[in-house]
Amino acid sequence: MTIQNTHNNVKPTLAAARHASPERHATAARHAARDRHGAAARHGSPERTVAPSPQTSRERNVAATTHTPTTVPLGNFRHVTALTPSFSIRPNETISLYRARMDNRDVVLRTLKENASNSEKQHFLGFASFLGRLGPHPFIPALLGVVSVRSPLVMVMEELRNRDLLGFLWRCREDTTSHGITEKRIVIMAGQVASALEYLHNQGCIHGNIGARSVLVGGDLTAKLWGLGSAYHRTQVNTAGLVEDVELKKWEAPEVLARRTASNSSDVWSFGILLYEMVTLGDPPFAQIMSTELLQYLQRGKTLKRPTNCSNALYSIIKSCCNWNPQGRPSVTDLIRILHAGERSANESTALRASEPLNLEKYTREAGYGEAFNFAIF
Q1: pTM value?
Q2: DSSP character string of 103-160
Q3: Which domain does 80 fall in, by range?
Q4: Does residue 16 form part of some domain?
Q5: Cβ atoms of 83 and 98 closer than 8 Å
Q6: Residues 6 or more apart in contact with residue 337 via CB below 8 angstroms
Q7: Where is the domain boundary, 137, 158, 179?
Q8: Are residues 311 and 170 in the same domain?
Q9: Do 221 and 256 fall within a single domain?
Q10: Is residue 139 domain-shared with residue 173, that is, in the same domain?
Q11: How far is CA 52 from CA 111, 146, 351, in A?
């Protein structure tokens, strides 16, 4: 998908939109996780653009139009309602989120405020262009279209019904009957995230913000890697401070805590922390350690303790990812192979349980919120 825009104008040009294939069911997702280059994602319909109508009622229709000399209606956004923020998925002050229907599918409208400055518009369209250049992948949320012909600017994203993985894990913690998650499901979902991460790395892109807050979950429990704002910032000039503010310290590799450059290996460290979050149903890592003391803690040879309901095999993967030495960590390609092999022996009959109920205030404190930027910006 290509998204073209010009930034020498106050008004951006029309962008292109492309349909991506719908979510795969669990079996197909596992096969795609083993596809190193995301070949299963190469689907799309002819490019098109969408533009909103000026209606602002709670249930409004937003017209979608083609970019032709005379604008022709192409479809509609229907049933547009505000999307309630979750703990992890919160727009920044310039963005509003809406749920809508488009072409008989659920979508999320990521909408830039109408009074946005030129630089905010440029950043918004730049991020859309970045997503377009990444191209489709079965385990990265699909960019379905961009409204750039008039204000407000809108990105049309596929909706993943279970939203962010952190919130999903917390719901599993509270209700194992309707949201029971087994070790095998964790291994499958982790393989999907690893497939997306390998795809990014193959394009020379470091994610830099991996965690349960940066993964979205579909209705069929397909996991898709999001939280790409940090990756986009790394492609820009003079944004080192912005990148630093996006990440939570307790998810960072020790070399990044020591102010060295992020790398594919530091993403692998954070992936190990993600596995820890998954098997604990959303516990924070290094709960008893202050973020400011974490580097010294790790320098003493300390590491994540094995969770109560974590198998030896899964804990071995976590430890290998969280190796102090970056060269001692597996590549993402190796992780995909290990996770695929682990599917066969992983427990698929017993739902994981948390050691204690969720205490949001305690979580916020132990995860280091308030010490760094909190949220994966959608």
Answers
A1: 0.77
A2: TTEEEEEEEE-TT--HHHHHHHHHHHHHHHHH---TTS--EEEEE-SSSSPEEEEE--
A3: 26-158
A4: no
A5: yes
A6: none
A7: 158
A8: yes
A9: yes
A10: no
A11: 10, 10, 44
Mean pLDDT rounded to a whole number for the chain:
78
| Residue 100: count of CB within 10 angstroms of its CB | 22
Q: Are residues 177 and 151 in the same domain?
A: no
With a CB cutoff of 8 Å and minimum separation 6, the contacts of 94 are: 112, 113, 116, 120, 124
279-305 tens-digit pLDDT? 999 999 999 999 999 999 999 999 999
Beta bridge partners of 107: 100, 158
Residue 39 near residue 137, CB atoms below 8 Å: no
> Which pLDDT tens digit goes with each residue over 82-100?
877 676 665 577 888 899 9
Distance CA 140, CA 244 (A): 23
Q: Is there a single domain that holds both residue 243 and residue 150? A: no
Q: How far apart are CA 303 and CA 324, in angstroms?
A: 9
Tally Cβ neighbours within 10 Å of residue 245.
12
Give the bridge partners for 217, in sequence order. 163, 223
Same domain (yes/no): 137, 171: no
C-alpha closest to that of 199 among 271, 269, 133, 134: 134
Residue with tokens 């397909």: 222
Tokens of residue 245, six digits: 């503010």
Q: Cis omega (within 30 of 0) on the bond before 136?
A: no
| 255 closest CA partner among 269, 242, 271 | 269
CATH number at residue 320: 1.10.510.10
Residue 97: both structure tokens together: 């989120």
In this structure, the answer to whether residues 130 and 84 fall within a common structural domain is yes
Identify the DSSP state of 330. P
